[in-house]
């Protein structure tokens, strides 16, 4: 061990007695200084200007630690350019000894090759510590210049930086042992870094090769650390990859002194590689990976609510089968070439808390009954011939895909439109997790949480929609209908994707079922029969939850059943005169009580805006009536209001595609201080907590402008006490303000970009000149 330290000390002395190490340190320091101050100084100016000129400015809103250091900041850019430094540093570590002839002296001395290699690498590791310390100057500065910085995020970033640079130097040292020419060694190091950075995307269609290239790939390894997540899998990877290249260097130097057949040398290298590969496999198995989320807000960890749901599953395994249709929707993201994303990005956060999630895969080809899309695209061809062309195009052999006859015996996927879908099985229960036609493609955490909870409980809330009086349909896909909010399997907001069960009923034919968690009456176009009104009244008297949605001109369809609740749909149509919209397009504010309905991200953001008296979130009503409220024993909360807006009520017929309507008291038009368009009612009825939503407009929940779906989910969550949907809100960042002004930031820029590098340059020159004189 003493010999290793002696060699390391000698190598470190050689490094700092050469201009290369000083030059690299200088360039690295300047790069870090420019990157750090280039972000900090403009932010300081912007904050100072906002504080002086914007009374409502409180903070930047986003994490400044992430902005300055991570997302396109210091760490991110430094790591992306690190490959430019390391080859120049390591190109002479071994080859210099060969060119100077000192390697013969080393071989003739009582020093083992292992000690030589380890000593030299230890010296490089110490130099890497110097680079980390230079980087640390700006990290420490950031800690003082950011209010409540995210310490853990920076800690993980430092560890990731050091592991990456140690890996790069291990590559460079091995390349240096392969050639006496330093330029060749540097180019070879560039090549190795490039190959290992890109190999993760190669040959992903083949199972064994996919796992092999994923283990070897550098891509994304540092990104995990920059996200603030430290895992034993990634730490083990860097340790193993460094150890492998150090072992390769030792073998190369040993074999250069021995006369051995090529196959014995190859066997030794292969043995090292296979040992590292086996250890890498063992350290990345589910259940054997340790995680440390260092971020202050635990951004890399599923929400405690999701963790609680997963804990309720107990020790029983969950089987997940991904069904991929070669000629179906989503095939491009669900084929085996994207398996690593599916395993490590989609499922790993959940496997972390339940290692007995078993992932299975089924590949098939099929066409939905009655769907002629593929036949029109490939005229004159059979389904098998179409699949063969798709197979050839994708590069997968046809025998990997089950034919329609086989897949239909296994599973009926017609209701899922034969697109990429995941089926979860647990204790005989099954539920689907769906994919979506958007850039994210895979389900959100809310969808996972709902699926796990449905598996644990075997049921979800059940909502019935009345259908006997031409109400809005949950089966039609028109823009005024409710399909996309209820049964739309390709809609992320649809209740069916959040654990709900949806059905319709005719109140003329049956009572509201006992299993109903809520009943929805949305824009009936004919008068409700006496029987329907009686059954609604009976349901309300039992403490049932309801949603009523009316429309201008149809107030009398709902007013009879609303009267016992102390609510009436006012006569006329609410008009709001703005420069951009038609007069019936009313845009009321979302109120503070509305933000308490659920922990939806947009409602939480609205709560922050209201607290800061900022311009707040609004919802669009394409035609709405005013809600008139009387005391009836309910606790009433106004959720959408037009307070302080230019709104009034038009009593007569409203013409929307002509000149701007004019207020006329003679025609019955009237104004009120605050037009209420959406309210909630709440009361205790025995042991039940009855909750009711009443809207003066049914279109605001339709696809018109498609922007109010989050309110629909919030209503339903409020009515079932937020058991579904399962919201997973994140804490607001605390590091949202700087503690430094523009003048100190400018001074810091001068010090870091000019003075510090100047001092480092002067130190290097003095040391090198004194060394040369000696």
TrEMBL record:
Bilayer topology annotation: Multi-pass membrane protein
Record GO terms (molecular function): ABC-type transporter activity
Residue ranges of domain ABC-type uncharacterised transport system in the record: 493-705
GO CC, alphabetical: plasma membrane
Subcellular location: Cell membrane
Domain of life: Bacteria
Transmembrane residue ranges: 20-40, 60-86, 121-145, 151-171, 183-203, 235-254, 266-284, 751-769
Keyword hit for Transmembrane: yes
InterPro entries, sorted: ABC-2_transporter_component (IPR051449), ABC_transp_unknown (IPR019196)
Annotated protein name in UniProt: ABC-2 type transport system permease protein
Originating organism: Pseudobacter ginsenosidimutans
